[in-house]
Amino acid sequence: MFSKIWMKFNGQMGLQTPPCNKHKVQPILKANNDTDEKDIGDQEQLVNPRSPPHSKISSDETYEAWMVEHPSALGSFDGMMKAAKGKKLVIFLDYDGTLSPIVNDPDSAFMSDEMRAAVHEVGKYFPTAIISGRSIDKVKKFVQLSNVYYAGSHGMDIMAPPRPVKANDGKHHNVNTDKKGNEVLFQPAKKFLPAIQKIFTELEKETRKIPGARVEDNKFCVSVHFRQVEEQDFKILEEKVKLILENYPEFRLSWGRKVMEVKPVIEWDKGDALEYFLETLGLNNTSDVLPMYIGDDKTDEDAFKVIRRIGQGYPIVVSSIPKETEASYSLHDPSEVLTFLLRLARWRKSSLSSRSVSQIWHTDHATL
To answer: Region Disordered: which residues (predicted)?
Structure first.
């Protein structure tokens, strides 16, 4: 197991929530078995703790009840920004289902030009990182922006700003650079690469006869997509994946939205990646920093939990149905994410005083 490379946050400030939200967010209910995890990952279950057993209410009513606990980030925007005044916002974004719609073909999960422009605007005013389950090369190809940071493979492959990082023993962490001089500061699963390639090859071979199954190499993890697999074939696919993993005890199987994820068993997830970015940006251990994370999937819950543990910031879930989550706020779908990001950039732009954008950048950001 790899140990974390920074000191944990000690701040005890209260989580930023709008005045109208008097309810506490319900804790996540853990899945008891693989089937439950599959259902949770696909967000197919409805959650309404207020309704009595066997009650029949419409999904709209259920969603409205859920939003009492997880109010709209758009409707709460003014209150959120009022609390953020004078503080440093750091923006973290998932990709699939957040910046792009969920599609049947993972290679066609393109973000719109409008979304790209919105993320670019946000990146002009705030340190911004995209943390995706995709390989870092794939998510960079989709996003096509140079003013944001990237973390691929669920945070196991990080490209962050050139800043020295010390481990717990006080020694500087080794860094690698790509051909353009961008630093790949952390790859905690690097030693697993040979095994990951073997798993990918075996999965491709064993699943190619299952119609609709798609195996994706995301460098430090392998994704088995089953969105287009017929129900009667799913169990066969699942058994093949589990059978292969029996020979690789250092790997585990987890679930996302119509996808099985094969990952090395290490203490690293999207929440750790969020903390790593804060560390390398020099924005950890300070009470005036508010991390904001927007994501839609089960893997994003790790980042939501970190923000809750820090005790300050804005965890925002993207969901069109009620779901168990650690997020404090919600957005309905990527179109609302677009509206929120545009509004966030406009708010920042309008809040600038006599200082120039360049001065703001050098004050609030680490140099790209």
So the answer is: 32-58
CB atoms within 10 A of CB 123: 23
CATH 3.40.640.10 fits 192-264, yes or no: no
- Portions of the chain given CATH number 3.30.1240.20: 192-264
CA–CA distance from 2 to each of 53, 126, 264, 268, 297 (Å)? Answer: 44, 30, 11, 8, 24
Mean pLDDT (the chain) is 79
Could you give the CA distance from residue 73 to residue 80 in angstroms, rounded to a whole number?
8
The CATH 3.40.50.1000 portion of the chain extends over 66-165+268-357
pTM of the model: 0.72
The CATH code for residues 66-165+268-357 is 3.40.50.1000
Whether residue 16 contacts residue 80, with contact meaning beta carbons closer than 8 Å, is answered with yes
301-310 vs 270-280: helix axis angle to the nearest 10? Answer: 50
CB environment 46-66: b (16+ within 10 A), e (fewer): ebbeeeeeeeeeeeeebbebb
Higher pLDDT, 94 or 43: 94
Contact 314, 293 (CB under 8 A): yes
Cα–Cα distance between 237 and 255 in angstroms, integer? 14
Q: Which residue has the tokens 């360049």?
A: 358
Rounded average pLDDT over 122-139:
94
How distant is the alpha carbon of residue 142 from its chain centre? 16
> What was the pLDDT predicted at 181?
53
Name the DSSP class of 190.
G
